[in-house]
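Protocol step 4 of 5: obtain the predicted structure for the target chain.
Materials: sequence only (see below). No template structures provided, no constraints applied. The aim of this step is simply to have a reference model before the mutagenesis design in step 5. Sequence pasted as it appears in the construct record:
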Amino acid sequence: RETVDYGNAKWPMVELGEVCEILDNLRKPTTKSDRTSGEYPYYGATGILDYVQDYIFDEKLVLIGEDGAKWGKGDKTAFIATGKYWVNNHAHVLRPDRTKLLDELLVELINSMDLSKYITGITVPKLNQNALRSIQIPLPPLSVQEQIVAEIEQYQKVIDGAKQIVENWKPTFRIDPSWEMVELGEVCETTSGGTPLKSKNEYYENGTIPWLRSGEVAQGEVYKPELFITEQGLKNSSAKLFPKNTVLVAMYGATAGQVGLLKFESTTNQAICGILPNDKFKPEFLYQILKSQKDVMIRLAGGGAQPNISQTIIKTLKIPLPPLSVQEQIVEKIEAERALVESAKKLIDIYEQKISDVLSEI
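Step 4 output (structure tokens):
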């Protein structure tokens, strides 16, 4: 779509109180015990909180968080509510004068602004009604507003489509019944790491050896560490240097079952099992196989909120062992798909910047 340059135009600045009716006196708070499931959305400062059996409003209006929200640039403080719905006392309710201001442009402008200077209170930060009324926005003619909103909506459609790709893509491939099935421990060497004594500063201070904790495995392909240990820390603990392309499995706690692929030489703590690279598996293929086995590992560990996956469980996993040439083909296809997903991520960034540029121009 051909874009319009609004950069040279000078629009009048108006306060929200001049172009919006504030309907806060119509909203009603409820307690959790008062609410039962129903068909009508129940809105708070950040969007729909629940569904209830009654409604207050039956029209398109703009809601802006009063408290319990965030008001920084890009925090989506404002949103549009339509149909029949209930609003509690944590969101302001605005009816723009549609002869002067479009709902959609108001939402985009508010969400593009840093409203922190309007916020009062420390324990409970709040955008009070007087401050809300005093917020200034540019007011182009309606015809220009319609062009701006149409342009932003086109950009948003691209963003939404790209987000669908990013959020829903998972690498998949079919396991051929003819492939040999083996226990992981029969074809791979596994080991775990260790933690140098925390009381020994000399084991950590000015360390240069990467040291991973289990939470970092959730990155997937792990390219950088958060912490380092020293040579002394390595020598005086059960920590071991894992080579690049070691497949990592988090064994304990909230991240149990997460699988990562180490992209540099590193040590780890004892909550990580390292599956060392060998000539039977492409590391990327083994990584994908074990990712697909996460639920199996957790089930074998007894499930629960904090499962404990032992090395024995990992070693006894049954995994396919196709020829290396087949593994390479599978990895190539997955990497080709991943490249497209990465392109979609870049597209999101580009089109979010386009929206930001349009709003900056006005």
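Step 4 remarks: Residues 324-361 form the longest helix (38 residues). The longest strand covers residues 47-52.
Proceed to step 5.
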